[in-house]
Automatic annotation (TrEMBL):
The lineage of its organism: Bacteria, Bacillati, Bacillota, Bacilli, Bacillales. Residues 109-273 form the Quinolinate phosphoribosyl transferase C-terminal domain. Its EC number is 2.4.2.19. One of its GO terms (cellular component) is cytoplasm. Hexamer formed by 3 homodimers. Pathway: Cofactor biosynthesis; NAD(+) biosynthesis; nicotinate D-ribonucleotide from quinolinate: step 1/1. SUPFAM superfamilies: Nicotinate/Quinolinate PRTase C-terminal domain-like, Nicotinate/Quinolinate PRTase N-terminal domain-like. It comes from Halalkalibacterium halodurans (strain ATCC BAA-125 / DSM 18197 / FERM 7344 / JCM 9153 / C-125) (Bacillus halodurans). Keywords: Glycosyltransferase, Pyridine nucleotide biosynthesis, Transferase. Residues 22-107 form the Quinolinate phosphoribosyl transferase N-terminal domain. This is Probable nicotinate-nucleotide pyrophosphorylase [carboxylating]. NCBIfam families: nadC. The gene is nadC. Involved in the catabolism of quinolinic acid (QA). It comes from the Bacteria. PANTHER family: NICOTINATE-NUCLEOTIDE PYROPHOSPHORYLASE [CARBOXYLATING].
Amino acid sequence: MNRLAVKRALDRFFLEDGFNGDITTTAIFPPSEKCVAHVKAKARGIVSGLSLLEIGYSLLDDHIHVEERVKDGQEVRPGDVIATIQGPVHHVLFGERVLLNLIQRMSGIATVTRKAIDTLNDPSIRICDTRKTTPGLKLFEKYAVRSGGGYNHRLNLSDMVLIKDNHIAQAKGIRQAVTQARSVIGHSLKIEVEVENREQLEEAVDAGVDIIMFDNMPPHIIKEYVALVPDGIVTEASGGISLQTIASYRGCGVDYLSLGFITHSAPILDFTLLIDEEGEQ
C-alpha cells in the first residue's frame, strides 16, 4: 500500500471518529499514563493490514511502539496475539476502533479470497478482484485481496480500456468501440472486451483485443469458447460466481476468474484489543 495514501486516509478516519477527542479516556486517565495492549484474533482466518497499526499510531503519537507478531497473509486462530502495542493510554485507545475496523475488514477479505482459491483448487486460474469495492476503502480492500493470495484487476478507470455492454451498445458494436479506443489511447494500455455470446467473441478476436472477458457464462460454455481464442489473448470469466459454485469452474481454461463477492460480501475477521493489566508482553 502507498504509505502516503494510507496516512491521508487514516487522517480522515481518525477525524471522523474523534474530531472532539475521546472524552471517556481523557476523563479517566492522565495524559502521562501508559499501557501495554495486545491485539488478539477471535476467529480463524488470514491476516491483512497489520502495518496500519504502526502507521496509524505514528500519526497519533510517535511514542507508541507497535510490535507485529504475525505477517500479512498468515493464518491465525482464536487467541493468537497478532500485535503488541505500548504507549500512552490516551492515544492507544483513541486509535483502537478505527484501526481494528480496517484490519478486521481487510482480514475478512483476505480470508474469503484464500477460501475461494482453495475451493477452486486450480493453479492454472488466478483469482482477481473487481471494482466492486467500498468507496474510500479501495486501497485497503485491493491490498487485502493480495494478502489472501489473489490478484488485482484494474485499480481505477484509467488503468486500462474495459469495453462493457453499455459501451458496445452506444458504439454500435465491438469493432467500432475497439477502433475508436485504440485511436485515442495509443500503444501503452491494454484493451479488454466483455462478451456475452459467440458472435461477440468472434468480433472481439477479429478486433485483436488483449483480453476477453466471458460474462455470466456457465463453465461448459466458457470451456467451449476458450478453445476459439488464439494464443496471446488473455481470457477471464466473471459474473454469477460464488463460493458455492466456484469449484465448477475448475478446468474451464480461463486465465482469470474475477470475483466481486470477495470484496463486497466478505464478513469481517474479528479481532480485539485488550490492555494487559500487568503491563507485560
